[in-house]
Amino acid sequence: MQRVALVTGGAAGIGRACCLRLAAAGHAIGVLDLDEGRCADTVNAVHAAGGTAVALGADISNRVQVQAALAKLRAALGPITILVNNAGVAEFLPFEEITDGRWDRMFAINVRGTFIVTQEALPDMKAAKWGRIVNISSSSAQTGTRVQPHYSASKGAIISLTRSLAEAFGPHGITVNNIPPGSVMHTIMSEANRANFPIPIETMIAQMPVRRLGEPEDIAHACAWLCEEASSYVTGQTIGVNGGRVVS
């Protein structure tokens, strides 16, 4: 059954991979990013594979922009019953160097943005008595990190929010789960921060149980499964896709 899926941060990296994987599963895709023009590559890739997609632009921390983007998606494709909250920002800084402004920006996008988009999409899912919400957090929220304390804290909030939403909306047929990726390359975050990695990439690979780093598609496959009808008994869960970086 085709459903309408909204993927935030869908222009590149994990978001783009989720868009393509969900489209391959037969869903129509709303590709949302800060700049609508950046979504063209993902939208074109979906169309080239025979799928349906529309480009959307919004700052997810701005409710008015989110409302306008979701209205455009509904007008083009219909009600939203799958949501992948992937958009976010990262930064490497020691705790002592984090300013109020940097802390607030991290939480505005990673936490308030997820809150706003979810709240705005939720009425469609409740009306349908069916929904899938997948939040993309980070394995850094599980382990902590000395050079990303504000990022880790914001992603920890997403894990807690996932559990609360699962409790609240399970009776409405809506599942809410969380994927904390670990060491995924070829994303905007990883490429922009490659020089700031605390250890060399070769060392990271040697420490991974699977002896490789992750790819966006690794996350997308897990995301697609959580959006299936077959996963209806899975909610409030943290599905670690991290190559064994986190094993408990």
Overview of this protein structure:
This protein has 248 residues and is α/β, with parallel strands linked by helices. The protein has one domain (4-231): NAD(P)-binding Rossmann-like Domain (Rossmann fold, 3-Layer(aba) Sandwich), CATH 3.40.50. Helix content is 46%, strand content 13%. It contains 9 helices and 6 strands. Strands 3-2-1-4-5-6 form a 6-stranded parallel sheet, with helices on both faces. Helix 1 packs across helix 9, helix 3 (63-77) runs parallel beside helix 4 (100-128) and helix 4 (100-128) packs parallel to helix 6. It is globular and about 45 Å long. It starts with a strand and ends in a 22-residue tail after the last helix. The model has no long low-confidence stretch (mean pLDDT 92).
Kindly, what is the distance between the CA atoms of the first and last residues, rounded to a whole number of angstroms?
A: 35 Å
Number of helices: 9
Strand order of the largest sheet: 3-2-1-4-5-6
Q: Per CATH, which architecture?
A: 3-Layer(aba) Sandwich
Instruction: State mean pLDDT (0 to 100 scale).
Output: 92
In CATH, what is the class?
Answer: Alpha Beta
- Portion of residues within helices: 40-55%
CATH topology: Rossmann fold
Q: Count all strands and give the number.
A: 6
Residue ranges: pLDDT <50 for 5 or more in a row? none
Give the number of domains.
Answer: 1
Helix-strand makeup class: alpha/beta
Describe the largest sheet.
Answer: 6 strands, parallel
Shape: globular
CATH superfamily: NAD(P)-binding Rossmann-like Domain
Rg calc: 17 Å
Oligomer: single chain
Strand content: 5-15%
The topology string of helices and strands comes to EHEHEHEHEHHEHHH
